[in-house]
Design goal:
Four copies of one chain form a homotetramer.
Chain A (H helix, E strand, L loop, with lengths): L21 H10 L11 H14 L4 E5 L2 H12 L4 E6 L3 H4 L4 H4 L4 E5 L8 H5 L12 E8 L10 H13 L3 E6 L2 H8 L14 E5 L9 E5 L8 H7 L7 H12 L3 H21 L5 E2 L7 E5 L2 H11 L2 E4 L4 E5 L6 H14 L2
Parallel strand pairs in A: 2-3, 2-4, 4-5, 5-6
Antiparallel strand pairs in A: 1-7, 6-7, 8-9, 9-11, 10-11
Chain lengths: 348, 348, 348, 348
């Protein structure tokens, strides 16, 4: 097959515009050849189990799945019974961007709360945390939060603990959508465990693709309760890879030599550099704290389209001119500086 | 990441015990690097569209998905409305091996018919083709067949045409589960198109993984009706890969230089060789015609476990001692001959 | 069976605290005895079809179902395909009060818009009317509105027409949740047809229970498209009564001698009387226009519980002290005047 | 409303062709008038709870629902988690006659077993009772049986106990579809409790409509586990009546003065009389033991249509000429004798 694209192209559109980290592809090549058992009974998936116990502590499980939507749906289905509902932010990916899969595939009612910055607090949770026993209300039995958030902000371990304590006090479990958990951990300089198990989180959708995998997501759980039925749900949600060795090998690559951290650290650093440079430009307003690998910014309206033509990024709010600039594991200082220079030129 | 398995190991367990064909991994490496648009707006997916139009004719579409279960569910959801039911064989993978996904994820009622050899006929279809307009009966609006079948048998183009004609006469569409369509086409020496579009099939789950991909399945359709809503269903069924360039690149590798045909031809030839050799042994009964890459055989009971220890295969029917021996794209004459020699030795 | 309640008791809690209108029970007695075909093939259901054609015009169909939730779910499932989403107000009963049935039973994604008074406008619809063709967005293909609304307000025929015109221009159909449609028609002094078919509405959940039936709801449609699959959906949504003669007889009683109008007119008149009397009291604020059979009012906080003890009603907003007072077909001037007198006494 | 049918008409088509027992309608009239709380917080539903504890013993609960399909779906959803499957007979109503509701509304995979007479045995259950822990197999976690069966046969308490013991030994619960449980109890001369709770059954769909109610079904459970989430499931399955007093009043009428028993005894006696008379006629073959209120019989082919024109009944198997004759609470000796006389005349 012939290459059909320019391997030097770069955008600020999304961290899934990037390809895979070369170490990840190399791991897949190592895992190839010969026969191993399918559906997870292979040595790579077995080894991954050991690595996960090292990273998250004894009793932690990681079950590979195929998409972030699939991870969220299966994780939430395992957490709540058929009559359970899940509280989430109005901006949550699970509510706005998954084609209705949680409701339609998962049969899960989502109870939404508007948040100022994509982050929940105990008080915000309380707005939907009521009505247990009321037969006409979907029963709020879990909360799902996103880390780093859809707005590029990050929960500290203390903020997470406040949320999980309040949720648990209400008899609700806590799920964390960690499509970009690596970026949050890198940002805070803490291990993955500090933002999940040690903060009281019950179940995590741990993302791989946005961190540099070809294709790989997972559900990480810390108890038998949180994992109840998960392997059956994974199959019935069409998330079970037959040649699972290849998915597991990617995750092994991600954990080995801290590839996840190296990739996230770079992406975050580029966002910080970008945010700082933009903030110094006239007529440019940074709208969210730059805490992970995204920069939300309002640009002078006449600069948006010319800049987009060269660097590609998405609108966040057409009404206000707010756009989202996303950095990836392969974003370089040069990419950032070129965008800033182009914008400076446009602003005259 | 370190290799954890023996790349020389071989089994007769399943074609998903095999790894990926090296040309497939090479295509993924070519597709890597730089940024391209996600969710299918990349040059590899675009090129794949052109290749599909060459292979299946103008107007054909191939939408990549992630699992065979996901392909079947999304394809059937696109074919029938909420109140539609789908007729299938009692042995169909979609009915027995997909964790209830068609019913539970897809909301599709399956109406089953026992078949002698996994193959439908117009007469067998008629057993469930009734009750349109009866408000208490799920409305039979599609038929799904498997090619090559779960029993290693193959439909000829004429047999397919008889089925699709009858189904269409009843106002029902026809879906083909082609997880091993390549093996059927190789067996019959006809192009993929002859077994699908030209035979009147409306929608196909075209498999890649069992033919040598890392991970890749797809839905191929030949009309706007059969593809209605498919891209939305793909997302809500959690089958949409963000870095789709890698899935599409695998399919491109499969179609280029007829890799699909080379791989299927080899697997089939090994099954033929195996079947012929086994048939000549005393006390051994071949139970299904060997028409693709599987051999169904009743072995002398005392030979089963020792042989399994060395070559690994699955029971098909414990009551009768029938086992299934599956050949893959990487099965060699040596693998086959070794199994036959081992069995001959066991039989004394 | 012995009577266990006080038949003179009255509340302002809900129109489903009332029993059935005596003419309704009389119709059930008439329909009893002997054998008639089940599942709708009886003379009462047949006659109902004729009556419906008189009320709503040729080509209109009424399919009896069992609950308001069931009516809404089946009607919406018939209107939109699996990938369709439905736009509704944040206060819509279908979103807040149906136990998640539309999402979980119906597989329908709801796209919500906050409204000031429970009423949609073309501009409010536009807030969610976008993204057709975007594979990650549930496709907005229908709008559902409530008449009279959950806040006791009423759409005029012109307001409805503006909504249906805009929706149709977007390629979306319009469903009307008419659990209290009778109250709206009585309020405006127009026939049911003027608020539905003639206003461009495609499908209606026409309520019976809140208008004085024992148990009976229905889906009214005006085209084959809007009714597609409805009888199959009714069965698979567990809404098909076997002895349908009794449900149909209730609806016949409702339409004959304009019982629906007499009942709704009385309930509305009592709400008007109540609203007017309350508005004249010091410290009492009517919060929504009294256009149907509900009065939304903020009462002096110290009066709420004593008044509730005698007249029973529900809180609408605990934060503001807003309560909802609901009038029924059997509410009398005396009931209203007694509540007002009691409140006046409490206010000193 | 005018009467539109002949109250003297009688058929052998189905027990839902009959109307309601006059005592049932009288109970609804008693329950009418004035205001009581809706959704089950009324004195009739409260009293029903006490009666149920008398009939089935302390700790038993009866939750009214609206259709047999709704009862079965909600009961099974409460018994098994999302990944659970339910074993049933191939002839089970839940599998063949409910429009796919268990699968599509309930998300429940049904695992079927052919039975000779509609009755399960421990050995038949074992045919599907395997595969726990196999991630690709829907997990068999409950068994559902029908009493009296779809073929008019009856399980004895000992037969039930054998089934529940085997099921429980497998870790599976047992649901009983009791649309005609009254007929079975009347046939065996035992209380309802002997065929349910005392026989180890966990959950029952207790039918009312076929026993003479206007409209009323229910789920009866004997433990908190079997009832888990049932009231929430009832709402989300659209089975919650707002004016529940009327449903509960019907059930009170059914239990008071043993109306259920009187009605079932009469229907059974008529079937016995009919079966005995038919068996004595030449060329007539009774095909199932007449143990409840149904007679399955093969009639001489030339007699079928003339007899059907006068007495209306359904074909059971067109290939063999087998028909089903159903007796109801209002079937009389005269009805039976007239059919027999007519048949005798036809046979010359």
């Amino acid at each position: 097959m012939t290459r059909l694209h320019d391997p030097a192209a770069h955008t600020f559109a999304s961290d899934n515009y990037a390809g895979a980290h070369p170490e990840v592809l190399q791991a897949m090549i190592e895992a190839n050849g010969g026969h191993v058992a399918s559906y997870g009974a292979d040595p790579y998936t077995r080894r991954l189990g050991e690595v996960v116990a090292e990273v998250f502590g004894e009793g932690a499980s990681l079950d590979p799945v195929l998409t972030g939507t699939g991870a969220n749906v299966a994780a939430l289905q395992a957490l709540v019974p058929r009559w359970g509902a899940v509280i989430c932010a109005t901006t949550a990916h699970v509510y706005t961007d998954e084609g209705g899969a949680p409701e339609r595939l998962g049969g899960i009612k989502l109870l939404t709360v508007p948040t100022p910055d994509g982050k929940f607090t105990p008080e915000l949770i309380d707005r939907q945390a009521y009505g247990w026993g009321d037969q006409q209300r979907p029963q709020p039995l879990a909360v799902t939060i996103t880390q780093s958030t859809e707005l590029g902000t990050v929960y500290t371990p203390d903020e997470l603990r406040a949320i999980t304590d309040r949720s648990h006090a209400h008899g609700m479990t806590v799920h964390l959508d960690g499509a970009r958990l690596a970026n949050a951990a890198a940002s805070l300089g803490v291990p993955l465990r500090a933002l999940t198990r040690d903060a009281g989180v019950d179940s995590v959708s741990l993302g791989g693709t946005k961190n540099g995998l070809v294709l790989g997501e997972s559900v990480v759980t810390f108890s038998e309760e949180a994992r109840a039925g998960l392997v059956f749900l994974r199959k019935m949600d069409a998330q079970l890879a037959s040649k699972m060795r290849f998915t597991s090998a990617q995750f092994l690559a991600m954990f080995e030599d801290d590839l996840w951290l190296r990739s996230a650290t770079r992406a975050n650093a580029m966002a910080t550099r970008l945010g700082a440079a933009l903030a110094s430009l006239p007529g440019v307003t940074i709208t969210q704290a730059v805490e992970a690998n995204a920069v939300f910014v309002v640009l002078p309206i006449e600069a948006v389209e010319p800049l987009r033509a060269a660097h590609h990024f998405y609108d966040w709010n057409r009404a206000t001119g707010e756009v989202r600039l996303m950095c990836s594991f392969d974003t370089t200082e040069e990419h950032v500086d070129r965008l800033v220079a182009d914008l400076r030129a446009l602003l005259g």
